[in-house]
Amino acid sequence: MSLISHSAEWAALTQHQQSLAQTSMRELFAANPLRFEQFSLQLDGLLFDFSKHRITSETKDLLLSLARQAGLPEWMQALKQGEKVNRSEGRAALHHALRFRPDSGLPLTGDGIHAKILAVRQQMQQFVQAIRCGERLGYDGQAITDLVHIGIGGSDLGPRLAAEALRPFLTGGPRLHFVANLDGGELARTLAGLNPATTLFAVVSKTFTTLETATNAQSARNWLLQSSSAANVSQHFVAITTNRQAAEQFGVAPENIFAFWEWVGGRYSVWSAVGLSLACGLGWEGFEAFLEGAAAMDAHYFNTPLDQNLPVLMALLSIWYISFWGAESHALVPYDDRLARFPAYLQQMDMESNGKRVSTEGVALDHASGAIIWGEVGSNSQHAFFQLLHQSQRLVPIDFIVSARPSHSLPDHHPQLVANCLAQSEALMWGKTEAEVRAELRANGLPEEEIERLTPHKVCPGNQPSSTLLFSELSPYTLGMLMALYEHKICSQAAIWGINPFDQWGVEFGKQLAKKIVPELISPHAATEHDASTNGLIAAYRRYVEL
Ligand code: F6P
């Protein structure tokens, strides 16, 4: 199969970009007073404004033709039906099935998948209730007060983000803690404030072989067992994994193992038992609302024509900038303290999914796929990296995310926060011309000589594109929608580029090399098998440790 970049639709977009590059968004807004109405969508309380983009109706049509030419509708159907869309690993990608409602009527192939999902959901629900009503006890008969979630990557980022974002909803359950890093500092800091008798560990690992998780779980186990001769692993550890045997070998009681399946990719797994800690914090109803929000986004994605389809439009906008304007990065700026971890979550979701160099058929791409995802909450980020967005020569598309209602009751803050969010997207699009700068300086009474000197420094070119996602409040339901929206957006990008968003062979390569270096750091013999830099660093480390 040939690459999508060799299609007539791709060529048409390349040509269209060249002509549109002569027109600024200011001009596009001036020419079309209905731009906001034409380029915004509303879905279940979520408003997506994409009018501040370098697009016209023609751009939208050409991008939609590209999606059709790339077979996106067929790919969406294959995803929904549980076909093996993860071609390099020969697996389906059924994360959307994890949030299915028994009454949703989603057709799925695959033996008993719904039954399996429902059985684990039931096991989770019982566990959540036992923890929250104090039935689940520690080794000396006290109720569990703290739950430490140990996992990394996809087994950490989603639940950690959701637990932080939904903090106001975490009532009546254990305190939640998350430990991912191989740096023992994170685990040590977490354990320092905890009582082993009332602490439960959830070891979350699809493979149950990931170095970071295995090391942290082992140290947590030692900490627990050293606390008392009565302490035991079976009461204080649960495991969420596809590798039941390894979890049992670790000492987890069979009834405390929660299954998930190879057709759930790690970074798409928060909806499975990987979300158990979150469910313990939220309560079962809250967790179900989170799943329902995601299910609403699934229903929209699978049932809405492409030209009205929110994840598809977001995907096309990203492709537009990466493939046709040469944008290298994409910034995420949530104006919401609770979403501080959203950029980190999307970094894995997007960069691990779309950072690929060959098509699903193994053909080398002749265009970039994926972007560097970065960001930080507003308004903090205004005082950090916004200068570059306003005045450098770089093109950086931005997603602004903002909730109309805050989670707190400090009356003066929220309108100011929202105003800053809207002002930034306006300023970045509109810019400030040389004439405007001169007029402003003149109005301030500056002498002509000073105006001449300052003007070039104060000009802001504008034309920096952004989308704004506005919703009424950040609830479990809204967060579920938002996270599923980005999942579908990212996978749609992959489908149009013709790459596999569900594998991560590069990460596996890095893991292999680390395993080799561990023994070399403690061996009495000098390492000689690496490049000179790596050998030198190993030797230097050993010298420092010996000092
Ligand atoms: O980061 C690489 C990765 O393989 C992710 O895809 C995965 O989410 C993470 O490691 C953790 O893997 P596991 O859940 O098997 O411990």
UniProtKB/TrEMBL annotation:
Keywords of the record: Cytoplasm, Gluconeogenesis, Glycolysis, Isomerase
A UniProt-annotated Pfam family: PGI
A molecular function GO annotation: glucose-6-phosphate isomerase activity
Annotated catalytic residues: E352 (proton donor), H383, K511
Catalytic activity reported: alpha-D-glucose 6-phosphate = beta-D-fructose 6-phosphate
Main location as per UniProt: cytoplasm
InterPro entries attached to this UniProt entry: G6P_Isomerase (IPR001672), G6P_Isomerase_C (IPR023096), Phosphoglucose_isomerase_CS (IPR018189), SIS_dom_sf (IPR046348), SIS_PGI_1 (IPR035476), SIS_PGI_2 (IPR035482)
Taxonomic superkingdom: Bacteria
Catalytic class of the enzyme: isomerase
EC number: 5.3.1.9
Protein localization: Cytoplasm
Biological or metabolic pathway of the protein: Carbohydrate degradation; glycolysis; D-glyceraldehyde 3-phosphate and glycerone phosphate from D-glucose: step 2/4; Carbohydrate biosynthesis; gluconeogenesis
Matching PANTHER family: GLUCOSE-6-PHOSPHATE ISOMERASE
Family of the protein in this entry: Belongs to the GPI family.
HAMAP family assigned to the protein according to its UniProt record, in alphabetical order: G6P_isomerase (MF_00473)
Functional description taken from the UniProt entry: Catalyzes the reversible isomerization of glucose-6-phosphate to fructose-6-phosphate.
Protein name (record): Glucose-6-phosphate isomerase
Gene: pgi
